[in-house]
Design a protein that fits this description.
The chain is of the alpha+beta class. Helices cover about 50% and strands about 15% of the residues. Helix 4 runs antiparallel to helix 5, helix 7 runs parallel beside helix 9 and helix 7 packs antiparallel against helix 10.
Length: about 400
């Protein structure tokens, strides 16, 4: 079942429908049968990575260098169908596409592009994005990681945390301050001094590899630096791309929960009738149906703006903020409809619910996107208030 109350299928091109149907069939056949076990065990299905590449799910909306060259709406649909399977699967492909391939594609040299993009597109190589640090998440400009010039290039020192794909990665995009200015570096993870430690004991995104990166005197050549992009413009440009995909992806998680809850409510009998026939349950379904439909319209319109090169970071913040909140609230309502059964591995809802608790935090927390929109309305940046005044 698919939640398409406003027949948004009519808004999609033939190619976009084909992409949706192809990825949906892949998720049904290869992800859904095993993802619950991977989540329970805390493992990622690495055997599927070559298939991600074969289906064009890595760098989907990039052109040339062996990349699939899909449109931006098709890329969003890919994210939506993958997250219908699991947020961890979508996260893997989002990081590879928007946070590794995009910066190399946009900021990199021809040497960097030719070295990495074709291999990243097929899944032969895996990448990660090193921005967040133990003490600097919502304020990336405060990063401690440093780069210093050497006779042959640069030496990097610092720690990055909450890094998706860190222990799997062959290449890392590392953001560090060089002479006080944030710069990006393409780092081969086999470089001496580069280590990744897997973060264990997670309640959320368990079918995803999350790591801490430690850089101790990591020497990289001059060719490793992104030559022109400086300051927060570089990493924030990448995050805008990732947030765009998230705003689509979480709709898939919401749909998976909604479909499960509808099926369950129609078959679960209490007080001599299916619980789907009770008014309070129907109210929940009406609310969820409305919010999922609104989220789809937001994502589709954002995709059209992106394809027309009119999309702004503020518009992406609105979509990410609204759609992730919608998906999390949908998962909570669906868990409630299933009662005690909603917390078991027999149903996907609690898994999606726990994953979405992470998605509402990463790539800009719900509160930070609230302040971004507040600044859009007022012109005043509430998250950069400066020093607190003191009273004599």
């Amino acid at each position: 079942m698919s939640v398409d109350f406003y027949d948004l299928n009519e808004l999609l091109t033939e190619e976009e429908r084909m992409v949706r149907d192809t990825v949906r069939a892949f998720v049904d056949a290869k992800i859904l049968p095993t993802i619950s076990k991977h989540y329970e065990d805390g493992t990622f299905p690495t055997e599927l990575i070559p298939e991600f590449g074969r289906l064009g799910l890595l760098g989907s909306n990039l052109h040339g260098y062996g990349c699939p060259g899909m449109g931006d709406i098709a890329y969003g649909i890919v994210a939506q169908e993958l997250e219908r399977g699991d947020s961890g699967i979508r996260s893997f492909c989002s990081v590879q596409s928007s946070l590794v391939m995009f910066p190399i594609y946009t900021y990199g040299t021809e040497e960097q592009k030719n070295t990495w993009l074709p291999r990243l597109a097929t899944g032969e190589a895996i990448g990660c994005f090193g921005l967040t640090e133990p003490d600097f998440g919502s304020n990336p400009g405060g990063m401690i990681t440093r780069a210093e010039r050497t006779a042959n290039g640069f030496v990097l020192n610092g720690t990055k945390r909450w890094i998706t794909n860190g222990n799997l990665a062959d290449v890392a995009i590392i953001w560090a301050k060089l002479d006080g200015v944030i710069r990006g570096f393409v780092v081969d993870t086999k470089t001496p001094g580069f280590t990744a430690q897997k973060i264990e004991r997670k309640f959320s995104l368990r079918a995803s590899v999350t790591s801490e990166l430690i850089l101790e005197d990591v020497h990289v050549p001059e060719s490793a630096i992104f030559p022109d992009v400086k300051g927060l413009k570089g990493p924030l440009g990448c995050l805008t791309q990732a947030r765009y995909g998230i705003s689509w992806g979480v709709i898939g998680a919401a749909e998976a929960c909604f479909d499960c809850a509808v099926d369950y409510a129609k078959s679960r009998v209490q007080f001599s009738r299916p619980i789907a026939g009770f008014q309070l349950v129907q109210q929940k379904f009406a609310d969820m149906l409305t919010e999922i439909t609104k989220a789809k319209l937001i994502a589709w319109r954002l995709g059209k703006l992106k394809e027309a090169k009119k999309m702004t970071p503020g518009q992406v913040s609105l979509a990410k903020r609204n759609n992730v909140h919608m998906a999390l609230e949908t998962a909570r309502k669906c868990r409630d409809i299933l009662g005690g059964n909603g917390i078991t591995y027999d149903y996907p809802i609690a898994r999606h619910l726990m994953n979405l608790e992470t998605v509402i935090t990463y790539e800009g927390t719900h509160d930070i996107h609230t302040l971004v929109l507040g600044q859009e309305v007022t012109g005043i940046a509430a998250y950069d208030a400066g020093p607190v005044p003191t009273r004599d």
